[in-house]
Amino acid sequence: MNATSRLLPVAATTAVFLIGFLICSLTFPNFASLRVVMNLFTDNAFLGIVAVGMTFVIISGGIDLSVGSVIGFSTVFLAIAIERWGVPPLAAFALILVISALFGAAMGAAIEYFELPPFIVTLAGMFLARGASFLMSTESIPITADLYSHLAEQALRLPGGARLTVPAMVMILVVAGGMVLLHLTRFGANVYALGGSRVSTALMGVNVTRTTVLIYTLSSALAGLSGIVFSLYTSSGYSLSAVGVELDAIAAVVIGGTLLSGGYGFVFGTFVGVLIQGLIQTYISFDGSLSSWWAKIATGLLLFAFIGFQQVTLGLARRSRRHATGGAHA
Amino acid sequence: MTPSDTPTDDRRDPAPLLELAGFSKSFAGFKALDGVRLTLRHGEVHALLGENGAGKSTLIKCMTGVVHRDAGTLRLDGALIAPRSAAEATQAGLATVYQEVNLAPNLSVAQNLFLGRQPTRFGLVREGEMRRRAAAVLAGFDLNIDVAAPLESYSVAVQHIVAIARAVDQSARVLILDEPTASLDAHEVEILFAVMRKLKARGIGIVFVTHFLDQVYAICDRITVLRNGRLAGSATTAELPRLDLVKMMLGRELAHATAERALAAASGEAAGGREAAFAAFEGYGKAGYVAPFDLALRPGHVVGLAGLLGSGRTETTRLVFGAATADTGTAIVDGAKVALASPAEALHLGFGYCPEERKTEGIVAELTVRENIVLALQAKRGALKPLSRREQDEIAARFIRLLDIRPPDPERPIGLLSGGNQQKALLARWLATQPRLLILDEPTRGIDVGAHAEIIALIRRLCTEGMALLVVSSELEEIVTYADEVIVLRDRHHVARLTGEAITVPGILAAIAADAPAGEQAA
Q1: What is the mean pLDDT of each run of 10 residues along chain A (330 residues)?
Q2: What is the complex's ipTM, to 2 decimals?
Q3: Which of A3, A184, A197 minimises the CB distance to B105?
Q4: Domains of chain B and CATH, by start
Q5: What are the φ and ψ backbone dihedral angles of A12, each rounded to 5 degrees?
């Protein structure tokens, strides 16, 4: 794949989003507004945050099935810590970030030291985290702390009655930070190298163990952050929240042009992938008569289309490479 | 091609670059290395040679700390070093480039060159600076390519040079090249040699592992040969003619004169064509696999394939059996042209194949002797025509008696039998299908001496019963006892055909070592 064919999947994802937005705007008269876009950001902030972590994991050749459960656990933990134990909300935020980061580090270490497949380890992590949140509470606990109502009101007011809310701001910061970390640092290069060839990366002197542990730590910590955002969004903690979000995140990553087998992908593509899923939801709510399950069907069809598209572009890139080689040496 | 174009052969260099002494390593009681030493001088290309299992890879792994040695010292410029991993070895100045390019194919050339040590500012990689430096490093190897493009967009030769450049740029003083030329074509090998000569001029010592003897004489200053984990010998290329080198590798002491005489006899082409060939191959070959060859297999005739490891023996048998598909030439069976595109077709034509890796490709260890024996026959008949249990018992009993498989218990899992008896059961599997051509790849490898003789006797008997046989063997003494014709391979070419009187061990050795123009590989 040369530099342009590498960007092709992201360009295609962006085109799909823009075309989708155009269709929505033509269908519904007041759709094309900054307000709708900002709502799209707010409503999908928690998904966007975990999807950034998932991008790192998938590019490195792994998978993290535990993130949905970690979000659920985080909301329950926050509700109980703030409401029952009287922990100040900011301290509770710090605590849950540390706990989820440690949880991710433990999964990464298990993958490395016991040479277990990430699928199995994070599947176990998924059951553990979900089980732990049920253990803490099976009921939805409302969070009434002042900070929560305060944060909910906080927003950057934009023209046209649009509001850039705190969750949306957090997501934008995470996406921007993720882009810098993945594309501009040594750690990011190591993540790509791991996805390209694990054995080679180790032979090139990269500390593979450290990199893997850090990747899963990052993914879990972002899931914890996503849990904070989710609890702000719903002002409650519930053990059944964010069930299946890991699959939405994986879908967003793949629709965003990242290869599920690792090695290729961009954080920006994932961000657009999240927005496309949000756009489908918004279309359905604007329409009013469609069942919300159509969102799942549309996401499924899009996934198929994008995987097919990736195979075609990969095949074309390989064929053109075969013609290009040989003349490379000057 | 001659050793004389190696001017920097500073044999009397007082301070060697790298000194290995007394390297020993055992795996579960088996001595993989036993007191091996090697001395590498500044600016020297040093060939490390030996047959399969001679201990080359183990030696390299012990040097770079990937495997922990039991004993031995390693000195770089006189100072003791003890790397414990590939990363530590690289830091110490000992870099290895493997046959498979160990870089990340999806990263850019520049990232591959600098992974883990990219220039950074405030924690961010300085992409422009890194590309500039990468271009400068590669320019030193006469390689002017777009360093921002992903590594996988370039040919394997370029990827090898990038791997070498990375190793050298990390201040490597000793470069270990583990069979880097195995996947390169002749032109690419030349490019690699040019790079090696540049490094030589910079005083870097290179340990070069290869199976291609032509390449050894084209670029190496000195040769060290391992055999069965021991040092078989070490000499400058000039002092070690090919014939002596091959003897050193195979471990056979033979008078020079007889070998030369046999070589003369060998080149005189003889005989053949008396009986109609059951199967004939004309100009049969596959690019990058085995050069086109002619081969005729007649009933009651044994054709032996001899040559060093990697010379194309197994590849030839795989082509004949359809396990690899030829891209040139024709195959004629019973006078009709056939397309041997798969082993299934070969089976249908009456071919049988006993692979070299008995444990992994041949037997199914958990199944009984009976089940293993009837496997191929059942496959040939197809799943719709199952052999009845009575038929199976009959077949198993017959072959156990015929081949004297011990213990004579058809219901014993085959994995519990000795190597020789496993091999006999494997033979029985193919004999049960009543093949007209049987291909045996190293039929006597890894079995005890007594069983050797039995297998050989069996080969001769099969032959008198009118079966055509194609046998690959490293045991030259054995080949000469049963083969009617021996084809010698070198560097994936069929280089000589010996028949009748010409089939002698020295004759075969001479043909393997001959400096014939057939190996244009590195010309």
Answers
A1: 70 90 90 90 95 97 96 96 94 97 97 93 97 93 91 85 91 97 94 91 87 97 97 92 93 91 92 93 85 83 82 68 43
A2: 0.83
A3: A197
A4: 3-93+173-251 (3.40.50.300), 103-169 (no CATH), 256-350+436-453+463-514 (3.40.50.300), 360-434 (no CATH)
A5: -65, -40
